[in-house]
Specification:
Blueprint (H helix, E strand, L loop, with lengths): L1 H9 L2 E5 L2 E3 L5 E3 L3 E5 L7 H32 L2 E7 L4 E5 L4 H19 L1 H9 L4 H34 L16 H32 L1
Antiparallel strand pairs: 1-4, 2-3, 5-6
Helix pairs in contact: 2-3, 2-4, 2-6, 3-5, 5-6
């Protein structure tokens, strides 16, 4: 009874096997049935199923973060506006590379986008083999670095966008967006896309930490 009960709890099936002993005189004696546990198979554990679900969500979020960082970098890198009026000595033009902060923003989002593309195979490995700790730990470390880089780039660019919209009367900085009405909406949209990527990276870090804890 104990063996059958433990077999039900572990998912194994106990099959009785008869063992026959033969003597030199040719007479055989039949031994009583001996229950033998034969492992026919065991279903996936709940932890493995939960790990696969987390891996699928991780993969989808990475694709969304790739789209957000790629769009932010592309919009910022193609932002350029020239005003229709100019003088003999001055031409009023605004481009992202006129601001070192926007250049850093472009580089930061491009690096994060490249990393996220390279991390897709590791995310797929986490789906196929959810018990592999090394791939998940590697993703957690580099996701944290990418989060810090993207957050710093987006925050620095947001400060410049704020000055471009509102100016700073204390230092006599005018609001550039009053003249460059096409330049400012584009850089503002790029900053919003970058902050969306930051939010996704925060969720990815939390998921990776939770998955490692459950393994």
């Amino acid at each position: 009874m104990d063996l059958s009960r433990s077999g039900k709890e572990s998912g194994d099936i106990a099959i009785p096997v008869r063992e026959v002993k033969s003597s030199r005189s040719g007479k055989g004696t039949t031994a009583p049935p001996v229950p033998t546990t034969i492992r026919l198979g065991q279903g996936p554990s709940p932890a493995a199923g939960w790990g696969r679900v987390v891996g699928i969500i991780d993969l989808i979020l990475r694709i969304c973060a790739i789209t957000a960082t790629l769009a932010a970098a592309a919009v910022m890198g193609t932002t350029d506006q020239s005003l229709p009026f100019f003088t003999q000595f001055f031409q009023f033009q605004a481009s992202y590379d006129d601001f070192p902060t926007f250049t850093f923003f472009l580089a930061g989002n491009a690096i994060t986008c490249t990393y996220l593309v390279l991390s897709l195979p590791f995310s797929i490995v986490s789906i196929v083999r959810p018990h592999v700790v090394g791939a998940r730990m590697l993703l957690l470390i580099f996701d944290t670095i990418a989060l810090a880089l993207t957050m710093s780039a987006a925050s620095a660019a947001a400060a410049i966008v704020y000055l471009a919209h509102n100016g700073n009367p204390g230092t006599n900085w005018p609001a550039l967006c009053q003249q460059f009405n096409e330049f400012c909406p584009r850089v503002s949209g790029a900053v919003v896309g970058s902050f969306l990527a930051v939010l996704i990276l925060v969720v990815l870090v939390i998921l990776s930490a939770a998955a490692i804890r459950r393994i």
